[in-house]
Structure formats: structure tokens, C-alpha cells
Amino acid sequence: MNGIYYYLIAFAVIWILALTLNTRLEKYGVETNFPIIMWKTKRLRGLISRISNFSPKFWRWFMNAGIVVSFLAMIFITWTILSSLPSVFETPAVSIVVPGVEMPGSSIYIPFVYGLLALASVLIVHEFSHGIQAVGEKISIKSIGLLLFAILPGAFVEPDEEELKQAKKSSQLRVYAAGSVANMSLALIALVLVSLISAGIPTFFAEDGIAIDRIVSDSPSDGILKEGMILQEIDNHKITNSTDYGEVVSSFAPKDNVTVKTDQGTYTITLDKNPSNESRGFFGIQATKHFKLINDSLGPIPWILFELSELFEWMFMLNLGIGLFNLLPLKPLDGGHMLEILLRYKLSEEKAKPIVNALSVVMGMVIVFSLGAGFI
Known about the structure:
alpha+beta; four-stranded antiparallel β-sheet; six-stranded antiparallel β-sheet; Pdz3 Domain; 2 domains; single chain
């Protein structure tokens, strides 16, 4: 069964329970107002306050720099998406990513467990950072919680809207920038950890060929090759490492009949068009380096390095990608609010708001078009 159906079943069960037990759940802070389910609590406000009060000056100056970084990132991600429009049907710059589900238009497949953990890190760090900065700016936090918008899960920290509106523009900018700056900072930390782990792997392991990590559904390899097979030769080209594999795979064109030798047998595959480059052949396999343990001084413990590396890789990718996307000049994203506040330094609210609203409509149409092109 396609992974998306498991999500739909889970969300259906959640909605049935929420609507059936609506009155009983209210005393636990659960509010059900279709299409939104919200769970609110005040218990974590003390933790956020303690973190914010640990070093108020640090958070303020860190987010001062974060404002500059955020606007530079806003320009970068906007330019990236707009410049991708000419090739949007070949390589969409925007796609929906769901852990454990192959999404049309996305060349990225996120493993279920690693994806959920990485997404949890995105939500927790993003929302807590908004709260930490709000407290630092003397803005009250009304509640903290989780939400489900139809089938889209999320988290939130709810500041006092009136206090936020009355705060200085610089304070508002710091609060809105905090989430994405925290995501990008965590992405950098995750990247450093991946680098350290990669540097330590040769101490215990040696590369020993290429293994099939995943088979793309309905691809040329589906039903022929299997996950876990070790690739030995492709059309009589020996595969000993990732460099060999990359060079050989990129040399084929669509409709080529290719012989693949693995540790479990030899198979013939007729290639299809590569979704990212139609002039290249597409096997439909996701390969990864295969290693053998050469230093068993710690027993099997070093194998965990690969699990940690993959987790931190997804934390890097999702925190960076979602953090940047959230800075688009598009309301209700943080980037849209930040742009409106910036314009209000020179323009009245009556003039700034229509400009941002119009830009939000344009960017929204671009995003929808890019997503639609991926599905097509």
C-alpha cells in the first residue's frame, strides 16, 4: 500500500475521534473547529521564559544578525524559485515532501522514521524560537500547542497579538525572524555533525561497493531488483565505489537495455526517461555506499554512525529547506510579515499592506504552479 494511504487513514481516525469526543477533549485543551484541531497548553511557557532569560542580550544580538540573514535568505529563495520557472516541468524547485511517501514531482524520498524525527526538530526549534524571542521582547505568550489543519500537522506558539502589534518594529522583526533563523542554525549544526561523522567512518569502515537502498515504485527496476542487493557490474563495467557508479549510470539513455550484475544474480532492465533530465536513462534505484567493518575494537557499535549520519542529513535538509521557504515574501509566512514591517519604516500601513498582499498573491500563484507542474 502506498504510504500516503496510511497517513489518510490515520488522519481520518483522528478526525472521527476529535468530532465524536469533542466535548470530553475540551477539558484537556483540545479545540475542534473544522478544518482545524488545536491542542493548547500553558505548561511550557515557564521553560521558554527560563531559556529566554538565561541570556537576553545574546538572543537580542543573535536575532539582530538574524534579521539581516533573513532578508538575504528571502532574496535568495525568491530568486531561486522564480528563476526555476523556465524549467519547472523538468525540475520543479518546489515540491511537497512527506516522510515515507513518494510524491509526484519530487526527486526526494524521505525515510519515514528519519523524516518524522527531522520534521519534529523543524517544528520544535522553529516555534520555541518564536516564543523565546517574544519573551525577550516583553511580549506575553498565551499558549503553546499542536494543530492539524485538515491533514496538515503543525505546531505553534501563540504570542499576545495586541502586544506584538504594539511592540517596536525591530522587536517584531526579531520575533518573526527567530523561527527560520533557528532552523537555519540547526541545519548548520547538523551539517557539522555529518562532517564529523563522515571523518570518523574511515577509522572503522572501508568502502565495499554500492548497495541498493530503495527501488522507486513503477520504475524500470521495480519488480526486478531488490533493496539490499550489492551492485557488482553494469553492462560489464565493474562497480567498486560511488564514483564508478555515478559515471556508469550517467552514460545511459532512455530505452537502453542494460545488464545489471548483483550479488544475487544478473538482470536486464529497459531504462526510462530520467525525471530530472529526459536525455538520460532512469533505473529507478537509490543507491548508497556499502561498507565493511575493518576495525571491530568497539564491536558492532560503530554501525550506529551511519544511522546518526542519515538522521542529521535529513535534519540539515528539512531545517534548511523549510526555514528558507518560510522566509518567502508571502503572507501568512514569516517572510511576508517581515517584508510588511520593513516597508512600514518608510510607508504607512495602508500603503504597505496592499503591496505585500499583492506580492503574496503572485508568489502564491508561483508556488501553486510549481507544485502543479511537478504533479503533471
